[in-house]
């Protein structure tokens, strides 16, 4: 039974302490069974089959922008022409980091000067958002401007007003589908406004991190309007870099990343990448092509992931509904894809919830991680990552977390 009486809650808390739990819901890592789904990739390329279907010896140097078959595959994956696709290494985060770093050092097509020569570079950060995006901005010395996320994407009135009025604002982070961490998907209207809005900076960039484009939890997948074609149609062809990877499709540590962008941005990227590598890992590209085959193969594979993830998400939501429906100021998202659920606690209690849960042996993502510089001004956002733990562990961890939410709320009075 649920109760909001502080001494009852405290008694339940003390009882749980004796259980010496050790549960981790901090990061969106795939569970071992999800990784097992791709084990065939470990043997799909061997000494006798290391040439691509077009005859390239994938063991050797070369092919700086990726095997043509990989570019064709990722063209469909990112909904872009193959010739505008660049294939990177194992992490799209590297592509994003290096895109920003190169812009700082050299600028991008259309930049009056390298960004590091500007007195200040500001960046729009929809919140709650992805901590590793914010870390990139912080490392580059950018000033982050938070803009609220709504159910359809970032608050576009704020984004458009800021971008139009401040030439030091050089871009925005976007996770357009099953967003990290709220799980929402951008509406067509948001995509159109991002593509067509006036920007004071001539070299404004959208970093479109479509990390969960192919990660529905159910049979049907959300769809997002094509940002590259929307930018093109609006006369801003160079505005966007569209990133993706197979990290949460095959092996999180050994996926293939890709970026699709305009011909001008693509040529600029290749010019710089040539200085850093003679070519990325073609054997891994070949493994992926042979294993996933095509987008139909990928979709079928992702349903196997969904079958593992869906019960975990549903379990979290069921427990939140069971235990927190009557707790004031608390709400949560019910995503239909992606890797995260966002829990909003009563203002001023998120840090305390995470601290209480930790003292019971349940590790949650640090409160504040969803905001620039680790600071959630309202201290109410908690990112829940249900993928890694087993279903029984999820049940225990979420029950503990819900108790900690009630206790922290009751402590606040
Ligand atoms: N972007 C987002 C929004 C993510 O949530 C993650 C993984 N947590 C990544 C990027 C990392 O992607 P990759 O493995 O391709 O670097």
Summarize the structure.
The chain is of the alpha/beta class and 413 residues long. The chain has helices spanning 6-17, 32-36, 68-77, 92-106, 131-139, 156-165, 188-196, 227-233, 263-276, 282-292, 295-324, 350-359, 391-412, and strands spanning 23-25, 85-87, 122-127, 143-150, 153-154, 169-174, 205-209, 240-245, 257-261, 331-332, 341-344, 362-364, 381-384. The protein folds into 2 domains: 3-30 and 298-412, Aspartate Aminotransferase, domain 1; 50-294, Aspartate Aminotransferase, domain 2, CATH 3.40.640.10.
Write structural notes for this entry.
The chain folds into 2 domains: 3-30 and 298-412, Aspartate Aminotransferase, domain 1, CATH 3.90.1150.10; 50-294, Type I PLP-dependent aspartate aminotransferase-like (Major domain) (Aspartate Aminotransferase, domain 2), CATH 3.40.640. The chain is built from 13 helices and 13 strands. It has helices spanning 6-17, 32-36, 68-77, 92-106, 131-139, 156-165, 188-196, 227-233, 263-276, 282-292, 295-324, 350-359, 391-412; strands at residues 23-25, 85-87, 122-127, 143-150, 153-154, 169-174, 205-209, 240-245, 257-261, 331-332, 341-344, 362-364, 381-384. α1 runs antiparallel to α13 (391-412) and α7 (188-196) packs across α8 (227-233). The model has no long low-confidence stretch (mean pLDDT 97). The structure holds 4'-deoxy-4'-aminopyridoxal-5'-phosphate. 4'-deoxy-4'-aminopyridoxal-5'-phosphate binds at residues 28, 91-93, 130, 175, 180, 209, 211, 245, 247, 255, 257.
């Amino acid at each position: 039974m649920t109760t909001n009486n502080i001494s009852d809650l405290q008694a339940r808390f003390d009882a749980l302490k004796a259980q010496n739990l050790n549960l981790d819901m901090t990061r969106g890592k795939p569970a071992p069974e999800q990784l097992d789904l791709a084990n065939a990739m470990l043997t799909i390329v061997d000494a006798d089959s290391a040439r691509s279907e077009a005859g390239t010896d994938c063991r050797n140097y070369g092919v700086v922008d990726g095997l043509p078959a990989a570019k064709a595959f990722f063209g469909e994956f990112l909904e872009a022409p193959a010739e505008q696709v660049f294939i990177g290494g194992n992490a799209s985060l590297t592509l994003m980091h290096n895109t920003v770093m190169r812009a700082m050092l050299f600028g991008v097509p259309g930049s009056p000067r390298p960004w590091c020569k500007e007195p200040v570079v500001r960046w729009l950060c929809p919140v709650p958002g992805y901590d590793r995006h914010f870390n990139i901005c912080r490392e580059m010395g950018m000033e982050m401007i938070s803009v609220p996320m709504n159910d359809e994407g970032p608050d576009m009135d704020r984004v458009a007003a800021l971008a139009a009025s401040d030439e030091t604002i050089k871009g925005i982070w976007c996770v357009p589908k099953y967003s990290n961490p709220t799980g929402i998907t951008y509406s067509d209207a948001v995509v159109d406004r991002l593509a067509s809005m006036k920007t004071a900076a001539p070299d404004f960039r959208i970093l479109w991190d479509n990390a969960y484009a192919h990660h529905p939890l159910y049979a049907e997948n959300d769809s997002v309007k094509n940002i590259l074609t929307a930018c093109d149609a609006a006369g801003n062809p160079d505005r966007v870099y569209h990133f993706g990877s197979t990290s949460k499709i095959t092996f999180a540590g050994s996926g293939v990343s890709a970026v699709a962008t305009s011909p001008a941005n693509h040529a600029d990227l290749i010019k710089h990448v040539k200085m850093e590598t003679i070519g990325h890992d073609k054997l891994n590209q070949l493994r992926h092509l042979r294993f996933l085959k095509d987008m139909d193969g990928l979709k079928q594979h992702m349903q196997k992931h969904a079958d593992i993830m869906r019960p975990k998400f549903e379990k979290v939501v069921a427990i939140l509904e069971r235990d927190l429906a009557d707790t004031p100021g608390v709400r949560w998202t019910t995503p239909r894809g992606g890797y995260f659920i966002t829990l909003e606690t009563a203002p001023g209690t998120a840090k305390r919830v995470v601290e209480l849960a930790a003292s019971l042996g349940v590790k949650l993502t640090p409160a504040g991680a969803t905001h620039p510089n680790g600071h959630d001004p309202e201290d109410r956002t908690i990112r829940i990552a249900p993928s890694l733990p087993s279903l029984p562990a999820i049940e225990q961890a979420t029950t503990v977390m819900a108790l900690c939410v009630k206790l922290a709320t009751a402590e606040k009075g």
